[in-house]
Amino acid sequence: MPSVTLKDVDQHKFVKAFASFLKKTGKLRVPEWVDLVKTSKAKELAPYDPDWYYVRCAAVVRHIYIRSPVGVGSLTKIFGSRKRNGTKPSHFCRYSFYFH
Fold this sequence. Notes:
Layout: H1 11-25, H2 52-66, H3 72-78, E1 81-85, E2 88-93
Antiparallel strand pairs: 1-2
Helix pairs in contact: 1-2
């Protein structure tokens, strides 16, 4: 029987399934401020999805598995986005790394 690794599985299905696993098992402690915080200085509002913390944790786990020696700085680059500055040109902003 051929073995299946995380690289063989669709990333969207894995992140969705692992996020639901984290939520169902309750092994991940979610902070109280999770519904109020922005994820980057480029964002205007907090995420709309109430389970965004589980999804982000699952995406980080997948990324660490795929690219093993990963630090916090590289994760802020991976999950960063562009900041819209109105009529001025947009610029890339890193993801916030102050989540504990």
